[in-house]
TrEMBL record, chain A:
Protein name: Sugar ABC transporter permease
Classification of source organism: Bacteria, Bacillati, Bacillota, Clostridia, Eubacteriales
Protein family per UniProt: Belongs to the binding-protein-dependent transport system permease family.
UniProt xrefs under Gene3D superfamilies: MetI-like
Keyword Lyase appears in the UniProt entry: no
Keywords: Cell membrane, Membrane, Transmembrane, Transmembrane helix, Transport
TrEMBL record, chain B:
UniProt feature coiled coil, ranges: none
InterPro entries given in the database record: Bact_solute-bd_prot1 (IPR050490), SBP (IPR006059)
Organism: Faecalispora sporosphaeroides
Keywords of the record: Signal
Signal sequence extent: 1-21
Name of the featured protein: Extracellular solute-binding protein
One Pfam family this sequence matches: SBP_bac_1
Bilayer-crossing regions: none
Keyword Lipoprotein: no
Length: 292, 455
């Protein structure tokens, strides 16, 4: 009896490496970054405790932060629905039994693998040049050339298009969800005379809402963390219209060496992401249907 | 029993490896010099220590520089078999961030290629590198003009040594001007007039637009306007942390700059290609009549122009002036510096390597002009003897030599100070701000950043 009640420590021992890693690489940086945010901390100087001065300065005396937050919110609030709608639409089409569908699924996933690297950035610069293929294509339909990268109204759109183009991962998750929708539901709907559109909105979408929630949170968080495209393609310009918060944080920390200020900006970004994610989760009880 | 034996063996192995590491660490560290008044000539590394020494040397640049410096490292290692130098190199993009982060974490290389503004801005007026005066027994500082050394002196300490001095110069494509029966402009008015001829068929979005001057990226317009302000007012941008210009002076320069773009002399803000380097298609295709570049990097632009197949079409033009007959004072700055880390365990060997880098005939010949033309008298003599002083870079330096020169303020290129100017220029050029508003921002925001540095 006593032997049966003896505690088995083996699982805990096996967990120790992960726990140590989690504490060192996750918990410690999070805590220390908050401590840094309360300091004037030049990268090559001595830190000095200044309380909430960094936060006060950010909200009251930092024009660049205001521009940066506006650019980030624009990117997130337009970009997230664009990615979700496009990836769902393509997944919906690729869910049909088409000839060579696997080839299409692979082809549409490739941009996601490429990510926001330098080669893709150069490709984007060339494509959206004033005399590039995109404007040439639009010219066929009588559209005047657009300064995609230097016009304040279009620069962020160009980066949203890049984000949308890389919809592969989101599409795969939607595709997996669509393939799990029982065919019997569609058969029953057909017998009842429901149109394809009615089936989409009354059967498909409600059933995959858990996956939609997952994708939404994922895309939203990643959009807030966008860095590569703005840094490599537009350099944050023109006039800070693509100067996303992550680029600003990077510049403050590693270009200017202001660790304290960068940490405060990071915490503000964390709060914004946390608040919006919480909003999405709390709203989910009204529109997400779990099969339980 | 077996477990006990195994743990005993492991403990002994660990203890002995720690001891050995400790011994090795001690043996590879060369002692700090006790006095700087010893031998006047640089000592060989073999005389400093015969123990194995490992150094790291970091630099940025293009492929020809990477290849050349690695050759120099190999030459040094051959002469000093006990020294191994690990090369850490890459392109310019992101390099400043890389070095700053390494300095913050005290993981920087022993020998570091540095930019002029870094030695002043990184420590906000305090030297963050080794004072090279402490290793002057090994690195001969007499080979530099005292003014050039002074440019890299921070808080009375010699933070780095410059390789040479550099300036922006105009590199132009002859055919574009010959076709229009024009010579390269010498005054700002001529620049405007040339724009009306060369850019007469330009449209807002024309793929075949031609320009007299391509001010590529953000740095070119900034330096062009800074030189223009200097030419017009005779005042430098900043002195002891104070911006010297009035809003009227800046507004007038900005308006003239925009007038160049409107005349067709330069691309407008919107027409400017996003490719802000030597691959800019307006330059590589020959539709851009000239560029305003650092003399040390002109070779890159020469090689990219028409795929490097029309080098004879390129020449260096005189500097622009406000009125014909004037001789402007040209902004110059140290062209790359070399510093030694304060955390280096072997600063004397690092200094000896730098001395070799600048004074060894084979090393200087191997380097060629991949770093530019040197202002170190020993290096320059070897460069001359080896017949390296030729081509477009020499033409650039020859042109510069005709003008009086002013060393840029160390904080002119501070990323925040410069960023303030960039933001104002961009806001004006894109039409977001009027010239008066932009001029106000140009001065006030720059001053705010300078105040932070000088507080």
């Amino acid at each position: 009896m006593r032997a049966g009640r003896k505690r088995n420590f083996a699982p805990y021992l096996m967990l120790i490496p992960w726990v140590i890693g989690f504490i060192i690489f996750k918990i410690y940086p999070i805590v220390i970054s908050f401590v840094y945010s309360l300091m004037e901390y030049p990268i090559l100087g001595d830190p000095e405790f200044i309380g909430f001065d960094n936060y006060v300065h950010i909200f009251t005396n930092d024009d660049v932060f205001a521009s940066s937050i506006a650019a980030t919110l624009k990117y997130v609030l337009i970009g997230t629905p664009c990615v979700l709608v496009t990836s769902f639409f393509v997944a919906y089409i690729l869910n049909f039994k088409l000839k060579g569908v696997n080839l299409f699924r692979t082809a549409y996933y490739i941009p996601s693998i490429l990510g926001g690297n330098v080669a893709v950035s150069i490709l984007w610069i060339q494509l959206f040049d004033i005399n590039g293929p995109v404007n040439m294509l639009l010219g066929i339909f009588g559209v005047n050339p657009i300064f995609w990268l230097t016009d304040e109204s279009f620069a962020v759109i160009t980066l949203i298009l890049l984000k949308t183009w890389q919809f592969g991962s989101t599409m795969l998750i939607f595709l997996a969800a669509l393939q799990n929708v029982s065919q019997s539901l569609y058969e029953a709907a057909n017998l009842d005379g429901a149109t394809k559109l009615q089936q989409l909105f009354r059967i498909t979408l409600p059933i995959i809402t858990p996956m939609l929630l997952f994708n939404m949170v994922n895309v939203l968080v990643k959009a807030f963390q966008e860095f590569n495209s703005a840094y490599l393609i537009t350099k944050g310009g023109p006039n800070y219209t693509t100067y996303f918060l992550n680029v600003y944080i990077y510049d403050q920390a590693f270009m200017n060496g202001n660790y304290g200020y960068a940490s405060a900006l990071t915490w503000i970004l964390l709060m914004i992401i946390g608040a919006l994610t919480a909003l999405v989760f709390s709203s989910s009880k009204y529109w997400v249907y779990y099969n339980d | 029993m077996n477990k006990k034996f195994l743990s005993g063996v492991l403990s002994c192995a660990l203890a002995s490896s720690m001891l050995l590491t400790g011994c090795q660490g001690a043996s590879t560290q060369s002692k700090a010099p006790e006095s700087t008044g010893g031998a006047s000539s640089a000592a060989a590394a073999g005389q400093i220590t015969s123990d194995p020494v490992e150094l790291r040397f970091s630099w940025w640049g293009s492929d020809n520089r990477h290849k050349a410096i690695q050759e120099v490292i190999a030459l040094y290692e051959k002469k000093h078999p006990n020294v191994k130098i690990k090369a850490e190199y890459g392109a310019w993009d992101g390099w400043q961030q890389n070095i700053l982060t390494q300095l913050g974490g005290q993981t920087e290389a022993d020998i570091i290629q540095v930019n002029y503004n870094w030695v002043h801005s990184f420590g906000k007026g305090k030297n963050v590198f080794l004072d090279l005066n402490t290793v002057s027994d090994y690195l001969k500082l007499d080979n530099w003009d005292s003014n050039y050394l002074k440019a890299m002196e921070v808080g009375g300490e010699q933070a780095a040594v410059p390789h040479g001095m550099t300036a922006r110069a105009f590199l132009y494509s002859k055919p574009l001007f010959e076709q229009s029966k024009l010579s390269y402009p010498t005054t700002y008015q001529e620049l405007m007039d040339a724009g009306k001829v060369i850019g007469k068929n330009n449209t807002a979005t024309g793929a075949e637009n031609k320009y007299v001057l391509l001010n590529i990226g953000k740095e070119c317009p900034d330096l062009f306007i800074a030189q223009m302000l200097y030419n017009k007012t005779g005042k430098v941008m900043q002195v002891a942390g104070k911006v010297q210009y009035t809003e009227q002076e800046v507004a007038a320069a900005l308006e003239q700059y925009n007038a160049f773009a409107k005349s067709g002399a330069m691309p407008t803000f919107q027409q400017q290609n996003a490719m802000a380097n030597e691959s800019n298609p307006d330059w590589t295709s020959g539709r851009g009549g000239s560029i305003y570049e650092w003399i040390g990097t002109m070779d890159k632009y020469l090689n990219s122009y028409k795929g490097g197949k029309a080098k004879e079409e390129i020449a260096v033009a005189p500097y622009l002036v406000e009125k014909a007959g004037e001789t402007p004072n040209i902004y110059v700055k140290p062209n790359l510096g070399y510093a030694i880390s304060k955390n280096s365990k072997n600063p004397q060997v690092a200094a000896d390597f730098l001395n070799f880098f600048f004074t060894d005939e084979e090393a200087v010949t191997a380097l060629g002009t991949s770093i530019g033309i040197s202002s170190n008298s020993a290096t320059l003599a070897i460069q001359e003897k080896a017949g390296l002083l030729k081509g477009i870079m020499k033409d650039g330096y020859d042109m510069l030599a005709k003008y009086p020169q002013t060393v840029l303020d160390p904080y002119f290129e501070d990323s925040n100070v410069r960023g303030a100017r960039y933001a104002a220029l961009e806001a004006y050029r894109s039409g977001k701000l009027s010239s008066a508003e932009a001029a106000k921002q140009y001065i006030s925001k720059q001053q705010e950043e300078l105040d932070k540095l000088f507080k």
